[in-house]
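Q: Predict the bound structure with phosphoenolpyruvate.
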Amino acid sequence: MAARNLNITPIGEWGLFRLPPRPCVIAGPCSAETEEQMLSTAMELRAFGINVFRAGIWKPRTHPGSFEGLGTAGLKLLKKVKEETGMHVCTEVAGAKHVYECLKYGVDLLWIGARTTANPFLMQEIADALQDTDVPVLVKNPVNPDIDLWIGALERLNRAGVTKIGVIHRGFSTSAPIPYRNDPGWRIAIELRTMYPDLPFFADPSHMAGDRKYLVELSQRAMDLGLEGLMIESHCDPSCALSDAKQQLTPKDLQKLLEEGITVRDSSSDDASYNEGLHQLRAKIDVLDENLINTFASRMKVSREIGLYKKEHNVAILQASRWDEVLERVKEEGRKAGLSDEFVVKVFTALHEESIRAQDEILSDRSK
Ligand code: PEP
Ligand code: MN
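A: Predicted complex:
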């Protein structure tokens, strides 16, 4: 798909982040809870150089009756953090009213939550409310893996004159049995990155992971893909957090993650920048390889289902005409995608042999 045009102000001109070095970090609790929690978390973060503080004020919770945020009282706390620590502050907006309130309280950066990005009506309302303002906006990916919906949200902001725009990749809802809360779906991040190499790009490993034990590996992957920033939830006492307790880190643990947990390859020297470029390309290959493995596994699963079906209906495993048909079709698809017949035949012959082997196993298993 050809990239639609976006007008993007470089992140270095937003007045919030210095780049290099990577990563630009946004940290703070999932939700603003109390003055003490906000100030003590912010002070601890400030002490090791974090200067953009996050806290949710209006919380989009799955179930009613969960803690839904402090609302405007939380904005007063954000203002206090700003005054007492000198940090820049940011929060999530999900509608025009939130935008007006944030502008009134001097919030420095807004983000759009995943559930809101997925809703064009709300996105338009937010964009209209931001008309003629200068506040930067980060747009999280929609909950569903729809890159166009994500780009559409950015376009709506752009049309309202907002050019300080960036994105936050936080993964996608899934029913697949994965260890994380959300499917990282890195290939979509790579696709967006390739379409808009100048679009400031953050990852939110906290909401991707759902559990603090995965934060290092996910943050590392974000850095390996060359993303500019990380948004990570941090709470002075995660065990008492009113939302997302399991995924929040103490400021001390966040410092450890940033200083010892992850390796960020950045350098201005030509040679090192070549190495970094190569490293980032290899990280993309790693993601694509993971996708290939998953696709192979899904194909094998269907092959086994076919094997069982054939067994139930007393049909032989190998139908040569079907295989010829598959081969002709994939060769044709391969040609369209610029792949040689020789390569396609090799890969699919290997896949076919493995399917036959698996189906053979099913057929010879008399217990099934
Ligand atoms: C959040 O950042 O606190 C949040 C609710 O995130 P998401 O929109 O990614 O679920
Ligand atoms: Mn959260």
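A: The two ends are 46 Å apart (CA to CA).
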